[in-house]
Specification:
Elements lengths: L4 E4 L3 H12 L4 E4 L4 H6 L5 E2 L1 H9 L4 H6 L1 E3 L2 E5 L2 E5 L1 H4 L5 E3 L2 H14 L4 E2 L3 E6 L7 E5 L5 E5 L2 E4 L7 H4 L6 E17 L8 E3 L6 E5 L5 E7 L10 H12 L11 E16 L2 E2 L2 E3 L5 E2 L7 H22 L3 H4 L1 H23 L6 H16 L1 H12 L8
Parallel strand pairs: 1-2, 1-12, 2-8, 5-14, 12-19
Antiparallel strand pairs: 3-7, 4-7, 5-6, 9-10, 10-11, 13-16, 13-17, 14-15, 15-16, 17-20, 18-19
This protein binds flavin-adenine dinucleotide (FAD) and 3,4-dihydroxybenzoic acid.
The site of flavin-adenine dinucleotide has 33 residues, from helix 1 and helix 9.
Enzyme class: oxidoreductase
EC number: 1.14.13.2
Keywords: FAD, Flavoprotein, Monooxygenase, Oxidoreductase
Length: about 400
């Protein structure tokens, strides 16, 4: 078997890359370890930056999103039981945030690929990348039917997430790893209840950070800061609602509507970047190369930004043999990655509470008040939050 690009992983990075290559007439095979239903049911991110929404439009994957997603023109910051609206569209020349969950994007992209009759194999196992530093790389794997397969290709796109095999294929002495673990985790909750807000609420509270988000007019999404080693078993539904009420509470009579909690999970928070994002004919994209703490909702958006660059570079090479974009892929992608890392970290520090550090707590309040009162500070926050592509480019 042979293809032009072997794509490892059918998360947002792999699926969107596959779609871009399809539209450019480049052949690809996507190999995914999990089953289709597992991938489509995995609950993760929910906020799309303006440019990610535009990309989905360009790729013709926007039909359901246009019908079902809510478009947000602002967000709310809460602290000291007060609320402050940040008018992000107004301050960024009209950039909005679109609420459409990751698994819906994944579903739409899988449906489009299957409708095009293009190769997408689920349930593959034991994926090994061979000869990535030669001109004839190969992917060996065990297919879902148990047969051993060899896929010859021109390039391999490592879109297999943080725990994937692609990054580990690159010799350790070639890579520099940058890493930071935070002393917090997020307890994420999905509840069958109408959201008590139209826009996202980011709350900074002495008991810890809380976020009120949403998935639809009937489903709310919440996150609570918890200690990194927290046991989910200690979080009854009643305790979750009580904590949300406390952390989101205001003095102006706002109330939180409660409903049935359908899922709960705990996610560790880390910053991680590997450099370079390429080795020979292997190119990493998305979580395979970097992880951001979730506070600024950049993970999915960065994955989309990476594969847009990678698709351009690959298509240029296949069209003309010009490899300048491919050679520059890692540097190009890393500019946006470090910008997003910096903002994700600063938004995390701004909103979370470390009880051991009272000085920090005072500094956070000074910064929060600055962001909510200075138009320049608010504008800078918004430019980063909506992911203006110019941010950080020199
Ligand atoms: P993934 O989505 O991880 O996809 C990688 C795919 O590769 C998976 O389908 C995996 O099964 C497959 N795979 C792995 N190993 C192999 C292998 N050896 N062979 C074949 N296939 C393989 N981001 C936000 O912006 N906001 C959020 O609220 C948010 N919440 C999150 C919550 C959780 C629990 C997690 C884990 C992440 C969250 N993120 C969030 C981050 C965001 O979901 C990721 O940044 C995004 O999924 C990255 O997409 P990706 O395609 O690079 O990786
Ligand atoms: C969501 C997650 C985030 O990390 C965020 O900043 C905003 C929204 C969400 O899952 O809805």
């Amino acid at each position: 078997e042979r293809t032009q690009v072997a794509i490892i992983g059918a998360g947002p990075a792999g699926l969107l890359l596959g779609r871009m290559l399809e539209l450019a007439g480049v052949d690809a095979v996507i190999l995914e370890h999990r089953s289709q239903s597992y991938v489509e049911g995995r609950i993760r991110a929910g906020m799309l930056e303006h440019r990610t929404m535009r990309l989905l439009e360009e790729l013709g994957l926007d039909e359901r999103m246009r019908r079902e997603a809510a478009v947000h023109h602002g967000l709310e910051l809460r602290f000291d039981r007060q609320r402050y609206r940040i008018p992000m569209a107004e301050l960024t020349g009209g950039c909005t945030a679109v609420m459409y969950s990751q698994q819906e994007i994944v579903r739409d992209a899988i449906a489009a690929r299957l409708a095009s009759g293009l190769p997408l194999e689920f349930g593959v196992d034991d994926v090994r990348l061979d000869g990535v530093d030669t001109d004839a790389p190969k992917v060996r794997y065990r297919a879902a039917d148990g047969s051993e397969q060899v896929l010859a290709c021109d390039f391999i796109a490592g879109c297999d997430g943080f725990h994937g095999v692609s990054r580990r294929t690159i010799p350790a002495d070639v890579l520099t790893v940058y890493e930071h673990d935070y002393p917090f985790a997020w307890l994420g909750v999905l509840a069958d209840v109408q959201p008590s807000t139209f826009e996202l609420i980011y709350a900074c509270h002495e008991r810890g950070f809380a976020l009120h988000s949403m998935r639809s007019s009937e489903v709310s999404r919440f996150y609570l800061q918890v200690p990194p080693d927290e046991d989910l078993a200690g979080w009854s539904d009643d305790r979750i609602w009580a904590e949300l009420r406390l952390r989101l509470g205001t003095d102006d009579g706002w109330t939180l509507a409660e409903g049935t909690i359908s899922t709960k999970s705990i996610t560790a928070m880390r910053s991680f970047v590997v450099e370079p994002m390429q080795y020979g004919r292997l190119f990493l994209a998305g979580d395979a190369a970097h992880i951001v703490p979730p506070t600024a909702a950049k993970g999915l958006n960065l994955a989309a930004a990476d594969v847009r660059l990678l698709a351009d570079a690959l298509c240029t090479w296949f069209e003309s043999g010009d490899r300048a974009l491919l050679d520059g892929y890692s540097d190009d992608a890393l500019r946006g990655v470090w910008r997003a890392q910096q903002f994700s970290r600063s938004m995390t520090s701004l909103l979370h509470h470390s009880p051991a550090n009272p000085m920090e707590w005072r500094l956070q309040h000074a910064e929060l008040k600055h962001v909510c009162t200075s138009e320049a500070a608010m504008k800078s926050f918004c430019e980063n939050y909506v992911g203006l592509p110019a941010a950080g480019r020199i």
